[in-house]
Amino acid sequence: MDLKEIRKQIDRLDCQIVKILNQRMELTLRTTQFKPGIQDKKREKEILDNAAQMPVRFISKAFIKKILKDIMAESRRLQAMGPKLVGFQGEHGANTEVAVRAYDPALVPIPCMKITDVFDGVKKGYFYYGMVPVENSLEGAVPGVDNLLIEKDLNIYGEVKLRINHALLTLPETDFRGIKVVYSHPQALAQCSRFIRENHLEAHPFYNTAGAAKMLANTMPRASAAIASKLCAEIYDLKIVKENIGDDASNFTRFVLLSKEKNITEGNKCSVLFVIHHESGALYNVLKLFADAGINFTRIESHPSPTDPATAAFLIDFYGSINDETVAETLEALEKKSIMYKLLGCYQEASIISD
User: Fold this and answer.
1) Helices (H) and strands (E) in the chain, counts
2) Could you tell me the pTM of the whole model?
3) pLDDT tens digits, residue range 272-309?
4) How far, rounded to the nearest angstrom, does the alpha carbon of residue 292 sit from its chain's CA centroid?
5) Strands (E), 165-238
6) Dihedral sign of CA atoms 15, 16, 19, 21 in order
7) Cα(345)–Cα(315) distance, rounded to whole angstroms?
8) Which helix (H) or strand (E) holds 86?
9) What is the pLDDT of residue 51?
10) Residue 273: closest CA among 148, 144, 125
């Protein structure tokens, strides 16, 4: 092993150390939901006592103790800032995290295993917000999300519309001409089928686009690449070979920001949930309310009611503000015609942005 290779491995380890520190700080910020103050001297002593028992070879235990004291000081500094945590489903670098950063760079995205964990985390107060995808311009409604909006008592605080930029990522030292295999989520692979076919690549499905990028960085398979967001290149120290490799340039996903609190600012778009009986003309009568008021829908989805098979639940998005008299009167009439009704939120419509 020559000097160049040794330094390359050192750089790689330094990158891993920073990633681990970021993970630790995320966990530190999450502890603020479970303790009364920022500093817990008993816990800090416990951490230092544990460090004294750690096996070391070349470095002194005094050095380890100093590092941990600095880490705990940085943890206290971050906790004192009181950042708002946002739960999202997937690995770091997922498009939903891109949406969180686009909505407000000051928010702290926290990855969750399942999308139900996002809803439950907001409900229980573990997260200030949750960000979830609701619909894609090519694929339609995101499976399962509408049902959770119906079942969970949360509000839509805002939205993000993100143009999906599928990028081909490789390890920094990989030559594009040597790539044989590409990993990504099946949906992303399908949306980049032309690029994959034209470059004679073998598509390997993976559970998540960001997960594919993470795997590539961790296991470093030869002659391989991942299709994921540009953010993944930054997070996992990968090289962007080519951007915008999707078949359809109009591909975008709409995300909504979930909160226990309602957005009290002036909005120009509303989301409403209502349940009505499966009766002839019932839905027509509801839709007529909006048509007569001149209110335009941007989305309508129907689902079986979670409590009664003889009823149906509807989610609608439309242009308008709850502060507008016509909108308020229409929603009041809708509530009277509904078995169950909830204004999910009134918020500012988002423009489509690129990552």
Assistant:
1) 12, 16
2) 0.93
3) 999 998 888 889 999 999 999 999 999 999 988 767 87
4) 37
5) 167-170, 181-184, 202-205, 224-228
6) negative
7) 12
8) strand 85-89
9) 83
10) 148
Q: Which domains does the chain have, with CATH numbers?
A: 3-81 (1.20.59.10), 85-163+253-354 (3.30.70.260), 167-242 (3.40.190.10)
Residue 12 pLDDT exceeds 70: yes
Token pair for 172: 């920094």
Instruction: Give catalytic status of residue 58 as yes or no.
Output: no
Q: Which of 96, 174, 209, 253 is catalytic?
A: 253
- Predicted confidence (pLDDT) at residue 317 exceeds the cutoff of 70: yes
Task: Report d(CA 19, CA 149) in Å as an integer.
Answer: 33
- At 189, which amino acid appears? L
SS3 253: strand
Q: Report the C-alpha dihedral over residues 79, 125, 355, 27, rounded to 10 degrees.
A: 40
| Exposed e or buried b per residue across 187-216, where buried means at least 16 C-beta atoms within 10 angstroms of its C-beta | ebbbbbeebbeebebebeebebbbbbbbbb
Reading the block at residue 209, the tokens are 């686009």
Exactly one of 119, 252, 255, 290 is catalytic; name it: 255
- Cβ 140 vs Cβ 166: under 8 Å: no
Residue type for 72, please?
M
User: How far is residue 228's CA from residue 243's CA, in Å, rounded to a whole number?
Assistant: 10
Confidence band for 54, pLDDT divided at 50, 70 and 90: confident
Q: Residue 93: which of 237, 254, 213 has the closest Cα?
A: 213
**Tens digit of each residue's pLDDT (9 = 90 or more) over 168-198:** 999 998 999 999 999 999 999 999 999 999 9
- The token pair at 32 is 């603020």
253 is catalytic: yes
Could you tell me where the DSSP H helices lie in 32-152?
Answer: 41-52, 61-81, 95-103, 115-123, 145-151
CA 80 to chain centre: 25
> For helices 3-31 and 61-81, what crossing angle results, to 10°?
50
Q: 244 and 188 in contact (C-beta within 8 Å)?
A: no
Q: Which residue has the higher pLDDT, 143 or 278?
A: 143
Burial class (CB in 10 A: 0-12, 13-18, 19+), 282: middle
